[in-house]
């Protein structure tokens, strides 16, 4: 167990006690200290069938942040491969490129979509509260831009895997849960075709059960059956630990339609696909996101997998259902690559 101490009370006579326990991985104590587990007993294991290979790279020296690159071991085409930026979930408080579910998912994405997958870590709360994760997702995209410039002969050192055979004109962002929230913010800030990232062109965004919040509960949050790994209490804990101190779930990072959030109707951003399980506690909030953007005339697709809980794709990327999801992702990428 890794121990991080801060703001320790002057009176050492009283023992600190847990005031917040986040899914057993992060614990906040009464004296302000934070305990984060280094070893976690995962219910899932890494599934690596050898169809893709990977390596790690440092992308943010200031914050010591790394990303994991994946590519098909034997590409099925001689065409340049598109780039998929995968943003992992975890309620902004937990998660890593090293977690077996995320690594398995990225291996699967690289092989099934025949793509280069870029999977960055980002700073986690409560040590680094929002918008730190949002800033890091932008830093990861900027790293991809720097690689594209280097590959085009613009100077600077470039990653070997990204020098040749990569189509930086076909970049897509896939975000899972809190990563879906980050994907939304990238879409809003980068605008359609991401002109600020040239020569990188982000063509579309896929939000898998994006983690949004709001001051008013939805029906699925209030009346939905509990999920095996997620419930409203856990969602509330994630927000308490990740939002700026004193902020509510109507904060712009949490609520795309909050009182201080940008007016999305006025913004022109790229195509979005939203995916959610029919039994997810977040299902109604995700559907509301889709309905509002659709009413604004945005280019958005929405797919509900009835009877499924949160993580049905990312946590079981080799299932028959996940094959169907991958077909939808592939179709979205192809349609928006023209």
Keywords:
single chain; 8-stranded mixed beta sheet; alpha/beta; 338 residues
Question: Would you give an account of this structure?
Answer:
The chain is α/β, with parallel strands linked by helices. The protein has seven helices and twelve strands. The protein has helices at residues 100-113, 132-151, 178-190, 219-223, 232-242, 283-295, 320-335; strands at residues 2-4, 18-22, 26-29, 34-36, 52-60, 65-72, 81-87, 116-120, 166-176, 202-208, 272-277, 300-305. It has an eight-stranded mixed sheet with strand order 5-6-8-7-9-10-11-12, with helices on both faces. The protein has a four-stranded antiparallel sheet with strand order 1-4-3-2. Helix 1 links the parallel strand 7 and strand 8. The longest helix is centred in the middle third of the chain and has 20 residues, at 132-151. The chain starts with a strand and ends with a helix. Residues 1-12 have low confidence and may be disordered.
């Amino acid at each position: 167990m890794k121990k991080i101490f801060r703001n320790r009370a002057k009176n050492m006579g009283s023992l600190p006690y847990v005031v917040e326990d986040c899914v057993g991985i992060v614990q906040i104590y009464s004296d302000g200290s934070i305990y984060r587990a280094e070893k976690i007993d995962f219910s899932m294991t890494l599934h690596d069938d050898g169809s893709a290979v990977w390596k790690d790279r440092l992308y943010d020296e200031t914050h010591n942040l790394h990303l994991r690159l994946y590519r098909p071991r034997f590409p099925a085409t001689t065409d340049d491969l598109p780039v998929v930026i995968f943003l992992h979930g975890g309620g902004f408080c937990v998660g890593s490129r090293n977690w077996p579910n995320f690594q398995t998912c990225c291996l699967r994405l690289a092989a099934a979509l025949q793509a280069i997958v870029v999977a960055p870590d980002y700073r986690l709360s409560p040590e680094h509260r929002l918008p730190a994760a949002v800033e890091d997702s932008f830093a990861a995209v900027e790293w991809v831009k720097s690689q594209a410039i280097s590959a085009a002969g613009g100077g600077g050192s470039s990653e070997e895997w990204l020098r040749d055979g990569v189509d930086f004109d076909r970049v897509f962002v896939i975000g899972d849960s809190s990563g879906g929230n980050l994907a939304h913010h990238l879409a809003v800030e980068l605008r359609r075709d991401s002109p600020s990232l040239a020569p990188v062109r982000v063509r579309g965004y896929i939000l898998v059960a994006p983690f949004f919040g709001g001051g008013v509960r939805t029906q699925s949050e209030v009346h939905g059956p509990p999920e095996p790994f997620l419930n409203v209490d856990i969602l509330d804990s994630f927000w308490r630990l990740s939002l700026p101190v004193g902020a509510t779930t109507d904060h712009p990072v949490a609520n795309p339609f909050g009182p201080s959030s940008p007016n999305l109707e006025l913004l022109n951003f790229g195509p979005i696909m939203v995916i959610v399980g029919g039994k997810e506690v977040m299902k109604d909030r995700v559907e509301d996101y889709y309905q509002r953007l659709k009413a604004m005339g945005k280019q958005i697709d929405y797919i509900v997998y009835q009877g499924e809980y949160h993580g049905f794709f990312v946590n079981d990327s080799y299932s028959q259902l996940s094959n169907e999801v991958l077909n939808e992702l592939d179709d979205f990428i192809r349609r928006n690559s023209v």
